Amino acid sequence: MKTLHIVVPCYNEEQVLPETNNQLLLLINELIESRLIEPTSRIVYIDDGSKDSTWDLIRTFHSQNHSIRGIKLSRNKGHQNALLAGLFESARDADIVISLDADLQDDIHIIPEMICENQKGSEIVYAVRNNRDSDSIFKRNSALLFYKLMGFLGVDLISNHADYRLLSKRVILELEQYPERNLFLRGLIPTLGFPSSKVYYRRNVRFAGQTKYPFKKMITFALEGLTSFSNKPLKLITTLGLLLFIISIGIIIYTLMRYFTHQTVSGWAFLNISIWLLSGIQLLALGIVGEYISKIYIESKARPRYHIQEKI
Predict the structure, then answer these.
(1) Which of these, 27, 52, 86, 263, has the minimum number of CB atoms within 10 Å of its CB?
(2) Contact 97, 164 (CB under 8 A)
């Protein structure tokens, strides 16, 4: 049997946390009784700088049951950094760590199956959604587009997998060697190359509170993944620039022919459209290059990913 830690990043989750805690405690007790995990197994909540009573609730949970631990970050550092804090802290005592979101949209009843996959030799077990029926049409199609785009750009992603996974202690220790600050764990974990498997589940509807990933954050997260794991956008810019250069030679020849035949006035509309089109492409290219430069800037400072204010 192995010691399990269930890591749960939290940000303003006071509405869902009591029910989440009850369900996770029941699950932990069932796993211990069935001798799948050691009695020393724990639930670890990471408060990512919440502004509500999330940390007070975690304190209360701990006072009622010492199998619950809490980590409070000094300020909001984002879901990925909060998740890393929980993984790294848990790896000191746990043999395996499972991460999941606080809203319990991820089905916790597949955790026994994930543990069994680990016992068979998988050091990484991905929990993968078997459908997206609970999503809106927009979110379903945008997710499909995102995975196809990342695949086209050469990023090794597990389709329909978020941050619900099991990692062995060895995998987490290897993950600690990655110093980058621009985190996209969904793309980083598969690059580690350890034996892995998948477990499928149906995603539930959020039973309380609001999603912590509105449209703006989804776009930011997608850009983070894109620019952290692929340099193909830069190569596409080079290809596009070469193509436009060839086209521009044809436009110059065409313009000179119109000039010498005294027909330049009629080409005003074409010239105007061309200027706007090229200006837009140039700004887009500069924006993509700027994304990469900003990441170099952040990585060069090598600041800590997070600061722990308190632990219980």
Answers:
(1) 263
(2) no
Of the residues 230, 264, 283, the one at which a domain ends: 230
Name the helix (H) or strand (E) containing 273: helix 268-301
Angle between helices 54-64 and 17-33 (to 10 degrees): 30
Same domain, yes or no: 208 and 248: no
93 and 107 share one domain: yes
Indicate the residue among 211, 230, 249 that finishes a domain.
230
Q: Are residues 112 and 138 in the same domain?
A: yes
| 201 sits in which H/E element | strand 196-201
Q: How many residues does the chain have?
A: 312
Nearest to 183 by CA among 310, 87, 104: 87
Q: Is residue 42 part of a domain?
A: yes
Q: Which two tokens stand for residue 225?
A: 């993944």
Query: Would you say 104 and 27 are in contact if contact means Cβ atoms under 8 Å apart?
Result: no
From the list 231, 218, 224, 222, the residue with the least C-alpha distance to 153 is 231
pLDDT digits (tens, 9 = 90+) for 189-199: 888 889 999 99
> Roughly how many angstroms between the first and final C-alpha of the chain, as a whole number?
25
For residue 100 the two structure tokens come to 């999941």
171 and 293 assigned to the same domain: no
The pTM of the full predicted model, rounded to 2 decimals, is 0.72
DSSP one-letter code for 204: P
DSSP state of 97: E
> Tens of pLDDT along 121-176?
999 999 998 876 666 676 666 666 766 766 666 667 777 888 899 999 999 999 88
Other C-beta atoms lying within 10 Å of the C-beta of residue 248: 12
The number of distinct structural domains making up the chain is 2
